[in-house]
């Protein structure tokens, strides 16, 4: 937890003050279905839950954010799509519950210069129809992201750096990049590395990914056309010939509903009508935290809540952003708005991925404590920061949020209280969700606003990739046009470094520069909120369910 002292050490812990009954434990192993650590008095967040001991016939799960739009992996860039596709379509590398990345459909990766990557490909994998997965399917799947006609949501960033993808052997694929990137295997644990069957994609045409045509993949659970009841649920069935015997699904089928109303979700989980859910709504925490028929888990997260600058108005001045961060009681937000399932953020990168880096690069936590600026709550320090502002402080700061999600108003009101202490005005402004979504894609939608809220997450567990996404000139989540040559140079140096430990140090240096400017104002790191009925167990508790086949680990408790 962040303390009100300079450069307070930070670790993967959380104060759970407002909600009783949250299951917590020390860090567990990252293996599929591994034993969860024994619950203890400390407050470390979970990575896994107790391993399932028996098969289950059917598990009823829920998608809190509603119904998916498509099963097409290249269109999976949000919670509803990724949470389901992760169980069906597999990547070359797989993110584990401890945030490590392991070979999956790929057997190995090799590079001499960070630009030319050679990947071994498994020769014992079949699609659900029994046909073998080939290197041609791998090449085709990655090239889909490069084809404008496919409309991949992953077409920028890492994909834009790909110069060529080719089969260079019977079980070998080579990816050539334009500039060195020693984090490529981590990116290939996301949708970028997912493999689909070329023949079925081409045969399905414009119907690909819809309820009638579906997809054809290699994962431990499969989709059968007709099992997606639009507006209600989608059912995934176990693929009995799955290539990895240790990763075979424990449940014969998993039915995932699309209930979004917090009260209906809480009631469904309490009665057992819904057996489990990630992203438990905040209003449901008190009810489920005291449940006698299930367990509410708090897991290591890769999510954070932040305010994104548009680069305009008073909030466009870095000194103002720094001042508002120091003037906002972010611990109060963690305790009240997030019911104790948040912790004040030290960076735009959540803490848990950095804890995973510490496992392979000891000393990184201390280095971050030395180099990152102090963001602790301190009104006098905030006033000192504001002295460097070069804008008209009499103008109000207009921050947009989706009006249907009232908890954002609570967060912004707390920030407005801090702004008032500084003699400036912050105006929370509700925008209908249908309109608010355009803030992330259309500069015109952001016109007239100084900033807007986000609950964001890392797509890959490498902190460097998220920093590039947020702060490099022209990157995909750089919504303010932020550009700093020193930041760009630091990020380029890090991604072009072959040694893991040295790359981690360079990443910290880049992170420190970014946090001095704060193109995003970080508010809270968020724990995973997951509930499971007492009849089931096994799902990972950490934030891997967008890219890891979490439903395959679900099974019965007896």
TrEMBL record:
InterPro entries in the cross-refs: Peptide/Ni-bd (IPR030678), SBP_5 (IPR039424), SBP_5_dom (IPR000914)
Domain of life of the source: Bacteria
CDD domains for the chain: PBP2_NikA_DppA_OppA_like
A Pfam family assignment: SBP_bac_5
Keyword Magnesium assigned: no
Organism: Leucobacter manosquensis
Keywords recorded for this protein, A-Z: Signal, Transport
The family this protein is said to belong to: Belongs to the bacterial solute-binding protein 5 family.
Compartments in which it is found: Cell envelope
Protein's UniProt name: ABC transporter substrate-binding protein
Major place of residence: other
Keyword flag Signal: yes
């Amino acid at each position: 937890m962040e303390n009100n002292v300079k450069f307070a050490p930070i670790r993967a812990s959380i104060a759970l003050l407002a909600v009783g009954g949250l299951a917590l434990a020390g860090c567990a192993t990252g293996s599929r279905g591994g034993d969860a650590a024994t619950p203890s008095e400390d407050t470390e967040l979970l990575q896994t839950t107790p391993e399932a001991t028996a098969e289950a016939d059917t598990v009823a799960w829920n998608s809190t954010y509603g119904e998916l739009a498509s099963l097409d992996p290249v269109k999976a860039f949000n919670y509803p799509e990724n949470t389901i596709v992760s169980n069906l379509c597999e990547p070359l590398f797989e993110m584990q519950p401890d945030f490590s990345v392991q070979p999956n459909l790929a057997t190995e990766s090799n590079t001499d210069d960070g630009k030319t990557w050679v990947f071994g490909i498994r020769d014992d994998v079949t699609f659900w129809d029994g046909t073998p997965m080939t290197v041609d399917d791998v090449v085709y799947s990655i090239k889909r992201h490069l084809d404008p006609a496919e409309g991949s949501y992953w077409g920028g960033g890492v994909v834009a750096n790909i110069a060529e993808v080719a089969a260079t052997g019977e079980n070998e694929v080579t990816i050539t990049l334009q500039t060195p990137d020693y984090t490529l295997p981590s990116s290939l644990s996301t949708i970028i590395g997912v493999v689909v069957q070329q023949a079925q994609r081409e045969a399905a045409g414009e119907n690909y990914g819809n309820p009638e045509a579906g997809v054809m993949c290699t994962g431990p659970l499969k989709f059968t056309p007709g099992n997606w009841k639009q507006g209600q649920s989608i059912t995934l069935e176990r693929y009995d010939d799955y290539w990895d015997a240790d990763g075979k699904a424990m449940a014969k089928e998993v039915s995932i509903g699309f209930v979004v109303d917090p009260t209906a979700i809480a009631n469904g989980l309490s009665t057992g009508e819904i057996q489990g859910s990630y992203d438990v709504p905040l209003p449901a925490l008190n009810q489920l935290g005291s449940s006698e028929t299930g367990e509410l888990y708090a897991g290591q997260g890769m999510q954070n809540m932040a305010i994104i600058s548009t680069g305009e108005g008073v909030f466009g001045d870095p000194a103002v952003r720094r001042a508002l961060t120091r003037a906002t009681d972010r611990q109060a937000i963690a305790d009240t708005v997030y019911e104790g399932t948040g912790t004040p953020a030290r960076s735009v990168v959540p803490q848990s991925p950095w804890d995973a880096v510490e496992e392979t690069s000891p000393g990184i936590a201390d280095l971050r404590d030395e180099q990152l600026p102090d963001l602790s709550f301190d009104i006098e320090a905030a006033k000192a920061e504001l002295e460097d502002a070069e804008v008209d402080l009499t103008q109000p700061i207009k921050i947009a949020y989706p009006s249907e999600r009232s908890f954002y108003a609570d967060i912004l009101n707390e920030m407005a209280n801090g702004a008032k202490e500084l003699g400036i005005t912050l105006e929370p402004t509700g925008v209908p969700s249908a309109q608010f979504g355009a803030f992330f894609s259309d500069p015109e939608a952001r016109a007239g606003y100084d900033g807007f809220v986000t609950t964001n997450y890392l797509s890959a567990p490498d902190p460097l990739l998220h920093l590039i996404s947020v702060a490099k000139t022209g990157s995909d989540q750089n919504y303010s046009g932020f550009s700093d040559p020193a930041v760009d140079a630091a990020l380029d140096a890090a991604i072009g470094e072959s040694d893991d430990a040295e790359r981690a140090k360079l990443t910290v240096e880049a992170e420190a520069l970014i946090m001095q400017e704060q193109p995003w104002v970080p508010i809270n790191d968020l724990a995973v909120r997951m509930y499971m009925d007492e009849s089931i167990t096994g799902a990972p508790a950490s934030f891997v369910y967008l890219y890891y086949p979490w439903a395959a680990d679900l099974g019965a408790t007896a």
